Amino acid sequence: MFTRIPCSEAQRKEWIEAGRGGETVQQALLKKEFADAGWQAERLLDSMDQSPDFYFHVIQQIKMSKWSTGRVVCLGDAAFAPSPLTGMGTSLAVMAAYVLAGELSKISYNDSPTNALEAYERTFRPFVEKTQEIPSWVPDIAHPETAWKRSILNVGLRALSQLAKIRWIVQRFEKDHGNEDFPLPQYASFDESGRDMSSGFLEVYGEKLVDEKSSA
C-alpha cells in the first residue's frame, strides 16, 4: 500500500484529478511519486499492472449544506462521508438509518415526509459534524518528510505499544472514549414493533414445542 500527503496545492490538485481518472492515470502518478522510494517500492510498482484488485482512493470528506430536498434524502457516505481516518463511516450510516426510520415512523399516513427528513438532520447532524472533526496533524504525523522525523515517529509508536500493555491505561481510555457515543433516540413505534415480533415469536415457538411434545 502507498499513501501520500500532498506538499503543495498543485500536488493536491494532481492527486484529486487522478482520483477522478482511470487506472492508467492513477498508476502513472504512483510510479512518478514513488519511483525513488526504495525498499519494496519498485517491486510493488511493477506489479500494479497485473493486480486484479488495484484500488486508488483520495481521502476526502463529504459535507452537504442540507441532507434532503423534498422527498429525496441522503445518508451515509452520500451525505456525510467522514473519511477512513475517523473509522466511523459504517457506524454513522447505520445510526443515520435508525434515526431516519424513527423520524419517518412518527408521521401519519397522509403527512408529508419533509418534516421527518428535517428532524432526522436536526437530530443527527451535530454528531456527524463532531465526528468529522479531525486534528490538524492527522494524517500528516504518519508521513514524516525527514529521517529525524521518522525516528521520532518510530520511538513514539514503540512507546505507545508498551503503554497499550498497561491495563488501567487502556481502561481509562475506553471509559473516556465511551462518552463520545451518540445516544440513540427512543421511538415508540420501534418498541411496539419489537413487542409484537417478540410475542409472535413466543407464540409460534410455543406452539412448535407443544407439537413436538405431542408427537413424542
Short characterization:
The protein is mostly helical and 216 residues long.
Per DSSP, what share of the residues sits in E-state strands of 2 or more residues? under 5%
As residue ranges, the low-confidence spans are 197-202
**Assembly state (oligomeric):** single chain
Structural class: mainly alpha
Q: Kindly state the number of beta strands.
A: 2
Characterization of this structure:
- The relative contact order is 0.07.
- The chain is an all-alpha fold.
- The chain has a two-stranded antiparallel sheet.
- A hairpin with a 2-residue loop joins strand 1 (68-69) and strand 2 (72-73).
- It is built from 9 helices and 2 strands; from the N terminus they run H-H-H-E-E-H-H-H-H-H-H.
Outline the secondary-structure elements.
Layout: H1 9-20, H2 23-33, H3 41-47, E1 68-69, E2 72-73, H4 77-80, H5 89-105, H6 114-131, H7 147-163, H8 167-178, H9 188-215
Helix pairs in contact: 5-6
Keyword list:
216 residues, 58% helix, two-stranded antiparallel sheet, single chain, mainly alpha
